[in-house]
């Protein structure tokens, strides 16, 4: 009860942990203008150090891309989250990606969503930076993020209604 009241009146907010370990940076540091200019939404990006993406929160997989390079999640808090591993990696047609979920799946925080081979993707000439974007950021008064080293399931995004 008090948690709901607190969130209604600006306290706390919604936490979205990091879906992958690495270094969190501002979206403006992503070389793709679609992400850098916030066209898809607000958030941050992670330069991954591990090729595993986990569900940061309990959610429904609204779309697991056929190529396995990206996944979008709908949370019970109303957050529409896109996790996009790498830039232009759709061109790899699924090579070096192993999805572990499908569109429509219900996932729990910490569930493995996909694995990817960082070295093979880089060797193919692609950047593995991973934007983590709140696609419906306009539904929130503020989207803030942590920068620097992050662990999977560690602090990353905070959203305020």
Describe this structure in words.
This protein is mainly beta. The protein has a single domain (2-160), classed as Glucose Permease (Domain IIA) (Distorted Sandwich), CATH 2.70.70. It is 11% helix and 38% strand. The chain contains 3 helices and 14 strands. The protein has helices at residues 2-8, 33-36, 118-123; strands at residues 14-16, 22-26, 42-48, 52-54, 59-64, 70-75, 80-84, 97-99, 106-107, 112-116, 130-134, 142-145, 148-150, 157-160. The chain has an 8-stranded antiparallel beta sheet with strand order 9-5-6-7-11-3-2-13, with no helix packed on it. It is globular and about 40 Å long. The two termini are 17 Å apart. One of its GO terms (biological process) is phosphoenolpyruvate-dependent sugar phosphotransferase system.
């Amino acid at each position: 009860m008090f948690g709901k009241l607190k969130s209604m009146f600006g306290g706390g907010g919604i936490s979205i942990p990091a879906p992958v370990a690495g270094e969190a940076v501002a979206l403006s540091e992503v070389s793709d203008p679609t992400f850098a200019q916030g066209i898809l939404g607000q958030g941050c990006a992670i330069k991954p150090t591990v090729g595993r993406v986990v569900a940061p929160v309990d959610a429904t997989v609204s779309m697991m891309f056929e190529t396995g390079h990206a996944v979008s999640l709908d949370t019970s808090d109303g957050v529409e989250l896109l996790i996009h591993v790498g830039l232009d990696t759709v061109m790899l047609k699924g090579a070096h990606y192993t999805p572990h979920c499908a569109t429509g799946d219900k996932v729990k925080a910490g569930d493995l969503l996909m694995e990817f081979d960082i070295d093979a993707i880089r060797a193919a000439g692609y950047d593995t930076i991973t934007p983590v974007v709140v696609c419906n950021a306009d539904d929130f008064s503020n989207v803030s993020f942590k920068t620097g080293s992050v662990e999977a399931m560690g602090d990353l995004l905070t959203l305020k209604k």
